Amino acid sequence: MVWGMFPCHTLGPLIPVEQRLNAIPCRFYAPKNSGCSEGKGVPDPVRTNAKMSVELDVFVGNTTIMDEEVYQFWLDGYTVNDAVKVRMEGGVLEECEASAEVLRSDTMDQYRTFQMCERLLHSPAKLANQLLFQIPPHRQAMLIERYYTFDGLFVREVLGKKLSKGTKKDLDDVSAKTGVTLKSCRRQFDNFKRVFKVVEELKGPLVENIRQHFLLSDKLARDYAAIVFFANNRFETGKKKLHYLTFQDFAFCAGQLISNWTVGALDNMVEDMDVDLEKEFLQDLKELKILITDKDLLDQHKSLVCTALRGKTKAFNEMEANFKNLSRGLVNIAAKLTNTKDVRDFFIDLVEKFIEPCRSDKWTAGDMRLYLTHYTNSAHILDTFKHQVVWDRYMGVIKSCILKMYHD
Amino acid sequence: MPGKLKAKIVAGRHLPVMDRASDLTDAFVEVKFGNTTFKTDVYPKSLNPQWNSEWFKFEVDDEDLQDEPLQITVLDHDTYSANDAIGKVYIDIDPLLSCEAATVISGWLPIYDTIHGIRGEINVVVKVDLFNDLNRFRQSSCGVKFFCTTSIPRCYRAALVHGFVEELVVNEDPEYQWIDRIRTPRASNEARQRLISLMSGELQRKIGLKVLEMGGNAVVGYLQCFDLEGESGLVVRAIGTACTLDKLIPGTESKETLPSSSSPPPFSPSKPCSRQSSSSDTDLSLTPKMGKTPPPSSPFLTLYFFSDPVYFQEFPFFTLTCFPPGFLVHIGGVVSARSVKLLDRIHNPDEPETRDAWWEEIRQEIKSHAKALGCHAVVGYSESTTICEEVCILSASGTAAMLNPRFMREGCLDAGGSEHSCGFCHIPYDEFNMPFPAQLTYCYHCRRQKVPDVLFTTIDLPAEAAVTGKGCLIQARLCRTKKKAQGEVNATAISNLLPFMEYELHTQLMNKLKLRCMNALFGLRIQISVGENMLLGLASATGVYLSALPAPGGIQITGKTPSDLSYDQHISTMQKRINDTIAMNKELYNIHPLECIEEVVGSPIPDRQRSRLFRSTSESSDELSELDLSHGKKDAFVLEIDDTDAVEDIQSLLTDAPMPAGFYSCNTEVMPGIYNWTSGLQMFTSVRVYRLSNANLTNQGLNKIFTDLCENLLKSLYFKLRSMIPCCLCHLNFTVAVPEEELIQVRRHTPKHTSPILYIFPKNILVRSGENEEQLQFSMELFSSSERCSPLPEVRSRSLRSTRSLPCGAPVTVVKMTPLSFLPRTRIVKYLGIINMFFIRETTSLREEGGVSGFLHSFIAEVFAMVRAHVAALGGNAVVSYSMKECVFMENPNKNQAQCLINVSGDAVIFVRESDQEAIPPLIMSGQPSTTGADGTT
């Protein structure tokens, strides 16, 4: 073999044979360096007593014991010192008459365990059949679920961005902005990237793939699907106008898009999968333009909607006045989606062209639902409009997205 | 006569990346036994190779089968350079050689490398076809079963107990051979691992031969130890108790499965063992050098002995600690012997003779001590060594006892079950010619025989013993400075210090016992370790209040200079504190001995007893209200304060922190006074190393530090396990060491570091969550309805879930590990063989692996993983009587290096949950949310 071909986690300095010559047999008895650092995140134990110091402190159970509270501190990127501080304030000490030293030693032990487990958590399926740690299955599930759980604030910052090294470099800004520790930011970012890489090459339904490969709960798998979907299509989410939207809003929309507009939506055994929007469908959307280009059709549509709405809402006047504008907005979004650039602006367009005008007219959520329902249904009555199927597929998603996004 | 060993390599998984270019590995496997090697094909470019090899067949002598391990090496094929080893698996095939143990080894075993740790796993199948050998001059002893368990294994019945077997083998330590200067650390570690594996195989074979010679078929209480003597060699020695065991037909033993009532089947040591005593040197000419040395025994008991088969044995020693009821007639007390030897004085270090002679000497001494106590046997016997450079202290200890001669003559008797008896407490020695000063009283149980005021033993609490209240862990800790010296001077200094240390440990134990208002110690284990400039003594035992023994008097302090008023005041405040502590401990351990006295009030009690009885009544009535110094003045334990040392002693007596509520601890197998165990258990190993930054400390200063260390360690255990309350730490086993530091000249330049390190290993702690007394009342409901809060159903629900396998891949078998000889609320159905594994781990990238703690943490985790994997491969689901015998740690942070050696042993078993009616339908259980964070399962 060639020097240096070790797996990275075992890579250490290679000692040439000659160097050992005068080191034996007492290669382990030598003066100690006062500052023998502990390396890799676990800091040196603090010398608490003038007369003695803890050199080594290890506690290993046959069943690996983990404190969920400490696990959370570790995930949140707390240093051992900070975690000890927080735990002390939390009052564990009074409960058990323990000293700060005890708490510190416990925290260090747990941190070490988590660090050793981290490698396994990167491919959760391994956790179940590895032999190093005996962890009861429900604990394994907890470990995985918590490891892959992310901060809503953090994910909002990177949603739709390319999961690249460049983005990772900017994480310290994100950390400063969101108040999430850099360590935690990196973990979350790496999780996104890892999931993205794995599912990128897989066939079949996205959510199911994520759930099976990372053994996540349905909810979390869906969230990851959304993140992957956003990262893949590079949807713009960072504009100021979109700031009011939470991750859950976007996740919901992503879910809608994935289950209705992708190739997998129609036939989940198809080669390509859920990550890309269906090209043909996007092409077909162009046909919808007739709704705004054909003057008759537009008027007819408007009168049908107005008839249906009259007397049912306070905002009727505004709806009637804005109908053409709004309809143009929605149909134009549809028509432009063949363009990758416009796909990216999908959400900003929805907000600018539709949600903002309605909000300035003080529509209620109920008004919105009413309007969109009738707007969608009325198109079916138009006799010259032939693209009912595409229309339904489009409006179904648009309606639920707008309803989700229509809030302050 | 040959046997045929067959091995098949099925597959590998999680292999490390050996080729950076492709991120893959071209792995193949070498299977080696003795001098024969087979190879599999190369499975190219995979981290999960599927070799599915043919059966590799080795035709070998059964002698080799016993000695040699099967060695499996996984390598990465390299076209242009030498193939790189990924790692190795050593498989001890001994379990396959006994027809009653395992029949096949099959499963995923971790691939282990001494530099990188575990690197993936390999799936192998190993079988042995053994041909019967009736050759009477054979050198092998296939079929002799070995058990680490120090009681008769659960699914066996002892037909005969033959007696003591011992053996010792010596070899040159590969680490100290000249060749070690040119080979890689990996090669040197592997040579060492292999050698020790070979030596323990040889040792077992030789002991097996002795057993066969004696007519037995098994060794119980097998205790194997390594002495890493350094230059003078590597010694592997073992002791055990030879027995003839009959397998119980399943079903017949079911009546005694409850741990509380269970006791090993009765056994009948009989017949002088066929091994002739070489020289009937029963003359006690050997003057003991140290140890508790009672005067020679009176000849009065000798007649009694002649009818006793045990008497004819050269060493009537039993490594067992647990006996059937009625087997122990009387217990005399703890006997121990120590001897200091110089390793560089061995004439021919490669031969075992010198060491054999050393041990022989010690055993003779033990035997004579036992005699002095009027006893003919020693039970709970164990041996140990501690080595510091060329000085070696050999120690042996046990409990002198009288065994029932009736048992031996009439063979197997079914003694009357769980009835309490007090016989073992009665003194075996002559009342008028006592070997040591003791206050004798009439037994509080039967009122007929004399009992001593306190009883120290190394065995477990006999099942028939009546106990008042609960037990607790009692520790005596002692640190003595010693001048740095070489050779003979050093040895003399040490051997002069030893008796004082033993005396002081004894005093400490006695004081602490009194302070807890208890009168007996069980499972006493005294460890003395030598460092360069200090000696450490650590004695641990489980204190109990035996109902048959008299109530301990209080502790009374007297000053020598009563003139000074403030001094008197000081003493009386101290006295008050002590009395308060005693009263508090009585409450804590629930010791209210009055009840048991009252129930026998009707029986004729001698006057002296009566007066005593009344006094104790009054004592307890006013113990809280006022300070009554008069109580127990006659038999109170008097501490005289004549200097500051004594003050310190008393201070330290009182500084033992009380256990947090809900915790119990003991170092015996069962906690006296608690009987309602759940099946949830968790085994831990914890290691701490401290560096003392100033070696110029006084004895008191060191003592204080040492005590604090032990206390801190216990505190941190309690903290860690707080989620399991109520729980009991059983078999708490402490080990201390003061590792030697060579290169003195270098250290002189940096006086800051001329300090010894203390290692403390509380090894093999078992935590059992037990319900407390209050919950006991509900235990009946527990069985019928699924109680919410109790840990019992929860644990079961978890294991049910775990067996219901995840869809992806085969789930890993859950293997429980416990230092106990049984698993509560379960039944052991089969013993699969002994597990005896030795590992070395070395690193040259200490910092990168997370420092010393990170290194050791992962190594211990790896050792656990390998033990579990081997047990699972044998088809087992638990290891009982598990112990980590050796854990030697060396580091050199300057070179970024560290090395650690670990030796573990235990019995692989299959257990089943106790009864089916207990099993709650899985549907109900799986729907239940797991409430607490208690990790009950092991």
TrEMBL record, chain A:
Please provide, alphabetically and separated by semicolons, the GO molecular function terms listed in this UniProt record.
fibroblast growth factor binding
One GO CC term, this protein: nucleus
Biological process annotations from GO: platelet aggregation
Q: What is this protein called?
A: Fibroblast growth factor (acidic) intracellular binding protein a
Q: Which organism is it from?
A: Hucho hucho
From TrEMBL, chain B:
Q: Compositional bias of type Low complexity: which residue ranges?
A: 270-287
Query: Is the Transport keyword given for this protein?
Result: yes
- The primary site where this protein sits is membrane
In the UniProt record, does the keyword Cell division occur?
A: no
Q: Which PANTHER family match?
A: C2 DOMAIN-CONTAINING PROTEIN 5
Query: What is a single Pfam family found in this protein's UniProt entry?
Result: C2
Subcellular location field: Cell membrane; Cell projection, Ruffle; Cytoplasm, Cell cortex; Cytoplasmic vesicle membrane
Tell me what organism the protein belongs to: Hucho hucho
Q: Which GO terms describe its cellular component?
A: cell cortex; cytoplasmic vesicle membrane; plasma membrane; ruffle
Record keywords, A-Z: Calcium, Cell membrane, Cell projection, Cytoplasm, Cytoplasmic vesicle, Lipid-binding, Membrane, Metal-binding, Protein transport, Transport
Q: Name one GO biological process term.
A: positive regulation of protein targeting to membrane
**Name the record gives this protein:** C2 domain-containing protein 5
Q: Which residues form the C2 domain?
A: 1-109
InterPro entries under this entry? C2_C2CD5 (IPR037785), C2_dom (IPR000008), C2_domain_sf (IPR035892), C2CD5 (IPR038983), C2CD5_C (IPR057815), C2CD5_YbjQ-like_dom (IPR056430), C2CD5_YbjQ-rel_dom (IPR056431)
